[in-house]
Design brief:
Length: 293
Amino acid sequence: MNRFINAIAITTTLVLVQACSSLPKAEEKAMSVSTHQHEEPSINESHYGEHSTSSTIHGEKKALTQAKLKAPSNITPNKSIPLLIDVQDLNGKAIAKFDTFQEKLMHLIIVSDDLQFFSHLHPTYKDNGQFEVEASFPQAGGYTFFSDYKPAGQTEQISVLKTQVPGITIAAPEIDIKRSKTFNDTQVNLALSEPTVKAGQEVTLMFKLQDAANNQPLTDLQPYLGEKGHLVILRQSSSLTAADYIHAHALKNTPTGQVHFMTSFPQAGKYKLWGQFNRNGKIITSDFWINVV
């Protein structure tokens, strides 16, 4: 699987139909989903929200699949809700088989639109193209879902959907540009192979992990999802789309306590990185900002 975004398929169309009866009834709620990389119509719906998106290969615009997301309309902050993702071909037939990649059949990335909240979930496959998972949202505001899956024999697909949690939104804090942070008992230092990161230029992102107590390189790192680590990158945008999403893969044969990723950034802007690592069975999620010119 190519480690760059041009290997990934992105979502394009929107369909609204009656949601499944397995989700509890709720009050009417407005939700939206992007129909292509730069446009996102909004809709109102009662009881539950269901959206479908057809996926295309980035650059080729070749439709492959459509994915439907169903969720209760009444979303309350910090309360777990059920989500159902239904994957079909373009004729509406359920896709029954999926390839495992990075040890899972589906990866679901949920972020708040201000990029302050990040969640990486793995929905359970229930057969007949349907995946189920529970998620919660910490506060009011907009959220974007990146559903990452791979139908058997096809390229990786990403379905992008959005929802709004009602309530009073809280202003996001200023961007923290520090390259060294401590997460519980682990210090994570981010170094770049280039002094200035330029759009379209390949760059290596080097995460150096140390024990916060003695500043020594970690010796208890274990594989996470079949690799040394997991990295998701998103460009800061007023409306997140698949064009803002990068999923990079860890390089092999790196020094003790270090996890490296090679990628490129499609355009200039501010990007947030979430590097995830397995320290003796405990997942560390580190976050950093970088500027791309």
